[in-house]
């Protein structure tokens, strides 16, 4: 193995992010979804054949197509900007000025280092500066950025940045507590550990506001 390959393995095995945005090529969306599915289908067929699997078996013959559609339409669908949820906001006419917390948002993502699942919960909060957002939109924003090859730190930041932009306020926070199957099911095979990441903006950088948020979500971790 070359030194470069050693370095790449070290990055992946230690789950280190190299960019704050998802690394996409400029031509990422030149190919239509149907074309991507057909191309990925052939790649999956080759992987399974290389592993010695018999693709004439009824249980396996549809697997390449199923995996290709899942990659493009589902688990990596968040790469496509056309699928970005509409983050429409509304005037805060009822003048609610306290913290709003949406906790225990179910999160499914995929580790970009081994393409294995990340499963956990996201807890999101904001303090209105004049605009409010629908509760389901917060879930959809989490889901959109999760449906990519990801690292958890980047995902946490992207959720906060999207809400800050939509709500025109810095007062947004997100905490994610998730299990990484690349840690739980391979490598060290530690099935108990989980990873906690946080991003605090505006008033959430203040100890009192941050502590109030953490009390709401009942997270014991100290930041």
Automatic annotation (TrEMBL):
InterPro entries: GTP-CH-I_C/QueF (IPR043133), GTP-CH-I_N (IPR043134), GTP_CycHdrlase_I (IPR001474), GTP_CycHdrlase_I_CS (IPR018234), GTP_CycHdrlase_I_dom (IPR020602). The keyword Disulfide bond does not apply. It comes from the Bacteria. GO terms for cellular component: cytoplasm. One of its GO terms (molecular function) is GTP binding. It is an enzyme of class 3 (hydrolase). Its EC number is 3.5.4.16. Gene3D superfamilies: 1.10.286.10, 3.30.1130.10. Pathway: Cofactor biosynthesis; 7,8-dihydroneopterin triphosphate biosynthesis; 7,8-dihydroneopterin triphosphate from GTP: step 1/1. It catalyses: GTP + H2O = 7,8-dihydroneopterin 3'-triphosphate + formate + H(+). GO terms for biological process: one-carbon metabolic process; tetrahydrobiopterin biosynthetic process; tetrahydrofolate biosynthetic process. Zn(2+) binds at residues 111, 114, 182. Keywords: GTP-binding, Hydrolase, Metal-binding, Nucleotide-binding, One-carbon metabolism, Zinc. The keyword DNA repair does not apply. Homopolymer. Belongs to the GTP cyclohydrolase I family. This is GTP cyclohydrolase 1. The gene is folE.
């Amino acid at each position: 193995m070359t030194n470069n390959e050693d370095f790449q393995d070290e990055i992946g095995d230690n789950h280190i992010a190299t960019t704050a945005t998802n690394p996409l090529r400029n031509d990422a969306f030149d190919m239509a979804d149907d074309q991507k599915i057909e191309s990925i289908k052939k790649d999956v067929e080759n992987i399974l054949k290389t592993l010695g699997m018999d693709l004439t078996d009824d249980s396996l013959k549809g697997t390449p197509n199923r995996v290709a559609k899942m990659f493009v339409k589902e688990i990596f669908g968040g790469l496509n900007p056309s699928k970005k949820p509409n983050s429409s906001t509304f005037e805060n006419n009822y003048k609610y000025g306290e913290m709003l917390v949406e906790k225990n948002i179910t999160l499914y993502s995929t580790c970009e280092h081994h393409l294995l699942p990340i499963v956990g919960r996201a807890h999101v909060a904001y303090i209105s500066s004049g605009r409010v957002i629908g509760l389901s939109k917060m879930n959809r924003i989490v889901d959109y950025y999760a449906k990519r090859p990801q690292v958890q730190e980047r995902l946490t930041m992207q959720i906060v940045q999207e809400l800050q932009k939509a709500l025109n306020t810095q007062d947004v926070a997100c905490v994610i507590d998730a299990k990484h199957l690349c840690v739980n099911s391979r490598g060290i095979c530690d099935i108990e550990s989980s990873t906690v990441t946080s991003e605090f903006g505006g008033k959430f950088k203040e100890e009192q506001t941050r502590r109030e948020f953490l009390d709401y979500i009942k997270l014991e971790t100290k930041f």
